[in-house]
Amino acid sequence: MKNRVLTRQHIENRYAHKAFPKLLVVTEKHGEEYYLINDIDGLLRAALAIVLRRSEEGYWYHKPEKSKLKEEVAEDVLVKLPSDLYAKAMEAKQYNIKIEKDFQRDMVAWEMIQKAVNEKDGVSAFQVIDDRKDYEYERWALENIKVP
Asked: I want to staple 137 with a disulfide (CB 3.0 to 4.6 A). Which of 3, 29, 73, 148 is the partner?
């Protein structure tokens, strides 16, 4: 999850200069889905439909579990260690910091998914698909279409 929380206004501002209708092309592992998007409300409804379907399928989103942390050396002992052991101890400390940071990021994303699903919130759903659009099987794009 990116370090931001979108609002409807953010989404409206992002697409204010775009002419509708658009075609939302969602590329997943086994194919593509297409949604006709006539306005921002349509985009939010489509995002919610995508997140709800993925949630119901059960294998897209999982509640994060914290990885096991490495044992850390107490600060008063750390300063007395020889350089090779000090470096190892610092590696463990940095590893734990990264694990905790990753877990917190993943929990924020999980909470956003839960909000989208439980509250049927299109803005939260849009944030979920927008944050994950670079994932291998979760790409999407808004394409121009011609309407005669």
From this structure: 29
CB 139 within 8 A of CB 133: yes
Name, in order, each residue with C-beta under 8 angstroms of 95's C-beta and a sequence gap of 6 or more: 69, 70
8 A C-beta contact, residue 12 and residue 40? yes
8-state DSSP, 60? S
pLDDT digits (tens, 9 = 90+) for 96-122: 999 999 999 999 999 999 999 999 999
> Where do the domains of the chain lie?
8-144
In whole angstroms, give the CA distance from residue 97 to residue 48: 34
Residues 6+ apart with CB under 8 A from 120: 48, 52
Look at residue 1 and tell me whether its pLDDT is greater than 60.
no
C-alpha distances out from residue 31 to 34, 46, 51, 114, Å: 10, 17, 16, 25
* pTM for the predicted model, two decimal places: 0.85
